[in-house]
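Priority: low. Protein: Ribosyldihydronicotinamide dehydrogenase [quinone]. Input follows.
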Amino acid sequence: MVSKKVLIVYAHQSSGSFNSAAKDAAVEVLTAKGCAVEVSDLYAMTFKATATAEDITGKVKNADHFCYGEETKLAWEAGKLTADISEEQRKLTEADLVIFQFPMYWFTVPAIMKGWMDRVLTLGFAFTHEKRYSQGIFKDKKAMLSFTTGSQESMFSANGINGDMNVTLWPLQNGILHYCGFQVLAPQIFWAPSHVPSEARGTMLEGWRTRMQGLLGENPLAFTPLDCFDGEKGYQLKPEVHEKHAAKEFGLTVGIHLGKALPPNNQMKAGV
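Result:
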């Protein structure tokens, strides 16, 4: 049996952080299970966070009106992306599972990790107009978010001051990961580790270690398939799909909610 390859994209500056401990636990457990694990430590790599024309070697097609998406597509096709991008694309191409490990900053990923997504997931390599969402380029790969919060879990509830975490996760999990075709595994959320006793942090890590024993066999989160939308009518949900769910209590997903109540834990648990 061929060993699975795992890429951990890691964004924290401190080796003494909880995020570092979570990353190390993943490397240890997955390696022990026979996986080949590679880590992209973005701060240690001083990874460039800004998507600019400097990401292309040589001349660009239209310097006067530079379009990053189109220009990097051409550069990818010609093998003219900078070495740091090409190396991350190699890692991603080889990976069966990608884990993004990070502290949540302002309800999303840190800038250096967003820069990885902006620069590595280029047009042509990670998605095209035809190949996206359920028909995406990475549909045979799995990806997941593993992150710490500064706020306690109750603050990210449907009644909490921060709002429903399922809503917070929709742009990242649907708009980036699922958009590129990834099968998105339920996130691993470490709620406010800096505000709990060390024993509780140890329990969190043990829960992560336990989950990783069966991580590669987990079912992904549910998203509405691309063929449920009419590309000739602005990618609106097809009438027959809409009608099928008309009498149901909840919408299809957090984003495609049909004006109904959001399906509980749609972005946090598989099978709902």
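The chain has a mean pLDDT of 96. Residues 18-32 form the longest helix (15 residues).
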